[in-house]
């Protein structure tokens, strides 16, 4: 649900120029997408699921072309929204750290555009301060506005396999 790079007004704000940080998401688009999915209550109703292309803009990422989005058919039993910044508000002067250099290397090895090692280091350097700012509250209170009975936390190992 990230903002489309070509339509963002993030220029000059290192925290918002790249995917991931709070404030780099298209909240209206996300809300519309969830409402559309929630409306798939009858057999035969259909909707496209937006996709994100991490290889766009040489690995900086952008929303994939709508023509490539898969179409699903209702009725749906579950809608799972994953978002590591879900419920957080943007910080004006903090930074966050979270890119996976292994994913970028794998994209390049597959012939897709990916960030260089230097670009990964720059991308990652923007995230660590935000982790330090957000994580204490996330661990103590959960995402802002969340309901504990509606929040699922899945812990994963270093290979992204679910634990437990």
Tag the structure with descriptive keywords.
164 residues, mainly alpha, two-stranded antiparallel sheet, 4 strands
How would you concisely characterize the structure shown here?
The protein is mainly alpha-helical and 164 residues long. It has helices spanning 27-38, 56-59, 101-109, 117-125, 128-141; strands at 46-48, 52-53, 62-63, 71-73. It has a two-stranded antiparallel sheet with strand order 1-4. Strands 2-3 form a two-stranded antiparallel ribbon.
Structure description:
By secondary structure, the protein is mainly α. 29% of the residues lie in helices and 6% in strands. The protein has 5 helices and 4 strands; from the N terminus they run H-E-E-H-E-E-H-H-H. It has helices spanning 27-38, 56-59, 101-109, 117-125, 128-141, and strands at residues 46-48, 52-53, 62-63, 71-73. It has a two-stranded antiparallel sheet with strand order 1-4. It has a two-stranded antiparallel sheet with strand order 2-3. The chain is globular. Mean pLDDT is 75; it is low at 91-99.
Poorly predicted tracts of residues: 91-99
Taking Cα atoms only, what radius of gyration do you get, to the nearest Å? 17 Å
Strand order in space, largest sheet: 1-4
SSE order in H/E notation?
HEEHEEHHH
- What is the rounded distance between the termini? 29 Å
Helix content: 25-40%
Name the average pLDDT. Answer: 75
Largest sheet: 2 strands, antiparallel
- Based on helices, strands and strand pairing, what is the structural class? mainly alpha
Number of helices: 5
Total DSSP E strands: 4
The portion of residues forming beta strands comes to: 5-15%
Which term fits the overall shape? globular
């Amino acid at each position: 649900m990230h903002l489309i790079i070509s339509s963002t007004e993030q220029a000059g704000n290192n925290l918002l120029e790249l995917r991931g940080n709070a404030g780099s998401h298209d909240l209206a688009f996300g809300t519309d997408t969830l409402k559309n999915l929630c409306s798939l209550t009858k057999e035969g109703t259909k909707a496209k699921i937006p996709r994100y292309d991490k290889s766009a803009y040489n690995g900086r990422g952008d929303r994939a072309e709508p023509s490539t989005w898969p179409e699903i058919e209702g009725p749906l039993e579950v809608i799972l929204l994953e978002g590591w910044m879900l419920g957080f508000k943007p910080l004006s002067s903090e930074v966050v750290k979270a890119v996976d250099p292994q994913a970028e290397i794998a994209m390049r090895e597959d012939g897709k555009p990916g960030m260089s090692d230097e670009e990964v280091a720059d991308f990652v350097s923007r995230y660590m301060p935000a982790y330090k700012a957000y994580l204490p509250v996330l661990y103590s209170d959960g995402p802002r506005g969340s309901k504990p009975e509606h929040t699922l936390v899945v812990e994963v190992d270093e290979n992204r396999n679910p634990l437990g």
